[in-house]
């Protein structure tokens, strides 16, 4: 009904322009708004109807003109001001008096009633919207027109929306104090490039309904809708904030059956659009396939309740506010904007969560690498200290075979074990560089390893290891040479003792025989042979001394098989002593035998002489 009434008046205005009844060049005639402005506004028909039935005073004209400036969400502030200036031109009462008819008076009264009804919806919606933001500072209003009059709540609302501190409100309840506080709020809006030329502080303090609604709508436009920017498919920004919001709704509800959002009025009546927006972002809250277009009240009630209970969005509208022939566009925009901001914030939180998660993952990864560095550094330093303790020891195996095994183990360490640890040392340097790079990329403080685990500390420990390794290698080679020398001495000793043993056994056998003969010549021959044996034995004493020297040297050097050496030496010495005793005894016996044989010879000579003499 409202649209048909507006269209009929628009057609009448346009036809009068065609007939020349309204001269657009005549400054005494009012300049009517364009058809687009008439379609979205109730203010201009009210001007027409009021001119038919009553005389407008200056205050009423100002109220109507300001309502006209705030009526269309498609117009920015500059366009609203130009429209307002056009509406403030003088009206020729003579012309309108000739056109006043009873049918038009009825239409105008109907339009005014619808406008009042729309004002009531806007008041309820705006009041809830204001309270949803004032709740952050524990404030609340009950009447939009009265509770904003002192300027205190208006100031708190602007502080919440802008995040800035406004001048402190003046204490006091007098009108002058209220005017001063509202002036501060309006001045702040002007600093935010919000045009309020036709709204003064006295209008708000006086509780002017339509100008108060217009002020709140302007604030919503500035702080809730103007910030919306959506890129189109061709990567171009939309022309206005309202178009951006409409495009966002269309993008989010694309693909949902029976949802085709083309405006912010009738397309929302069945409630499917609200449910589609919620289902797009939170499919767990709504079973969209069970909704039907015919059950609009249920759809709206469900969407509003879910948004309030699960999303925390204030229930700015009731189903009866939307499920009407002509829903209020501003109220729906105000409510849909809360959806946009919530889901945009949710998306931002998800993105931020992913970003924080990535940062946490990087921190965890960095912490893991740091722990790995600490563990590897500790293991490497422990290995270095343990290895230094092992290779610094000067205790070697007391045998050639043992020293050779130690040398083989040392060679294995140098060629196999040490290169692996050297690679680990290089990996530690790379690991520390990786840690520092990650921390630098995350704008974090550089990592400083614990005392003793710095790369410089590891390098110093490695230098001590190499020094000990060099000393170990030199000592092992010296010990190997010594053991080889001892082994040669032992072999020489065994060879000589074997020869000496054979010689001693042979001579002991010779001197043990007493076959001296039975006559003096034989005994004398045996004596000479015995003297030869004694001479040979005397000359052999030097060779026995060589064996003793070899044994003493090996004993001095700590030959591992020195007991066997000493046993053989004692055996040789025993055999040598025995041989000398045997030689000495044999000589004694030879000498006795020789003396006996000489006695026998003398006796033979004596007998022969006696026989000769006889």
Helix content: over 70%
- Element-by-element helix/strand order: HHHHHHHHHHHHHHHHHHHHH
By DSSP (H or I, 4+ residues per run), the number of helices equals 21
Distance N terminus to C terminus?
Answer: 205 Å
Tell me how many strands there are. 0
Task: Report the major sheet.
Answer: none
Q: Structural class, from helix and strand content?
A: mainly alpha
Describe the global form. rod-shaped
Our Rg estimate from Cα atoms comes to 62 Å
Low-confidence stretches: 1-98
Roughly what fraction of the amino acids lie in strands?
A: under 5%
**What is the averaged pLDDT score?**
79
Descriptive account of the structure:
This protein is mainly α and 614 residues long. It has helices at 2-19, 35-40, 43-53, 58-69, 77-87, 93-99, 102-134, 144-147, 152-162, 175-191, 201-205, 209-225, 241-253, 272-281, 296-309, 319-322, 329-391, 400-441, 455-511, 520-557, 562-613. The relative contact order is 0.05. Residues 1-98 have low confidence and may be disordered. InterPro entries: Actinin_actin-bd_CS, CH_dom, CH_dom_sf, Spectrin/alpha-actinin, Spectrin_repeat. This is Spectrin beta chain, non-erythrocytic 4.
Topology:
Layout: H1 2-19, H2 35-40, H3 43-53, H4 58-69, H5 77-87, H6 93-99, H7 102-134, H8 144-147, H9 152-162, H10 175-191, H11 201-205, H12 209-225, H13 241-253, H14 272-281, H15 296-309, H16 319-322, H17 329-391, H18 400-441, H19 455-511, H20 520-557, H21 562-613
Helix pairs in contact: 3-4, 3-7, 4-5, 4-12, 7-12, 7-17, 9-10, 12-17, 13-17, 14-15, 17-18, 17-19, 18-19, 19-20, 19-21, 20-21
Domain Calponin-homology (CH): 120-224, 239-344
Protein name: Spectrin beta chain, non-erythrocytic 4
InterPro entries: Actinin_actin-bd_CS, CH_dom, CH_dom_sf, Spectrin/alpha-actinin, Spectrin_repeat
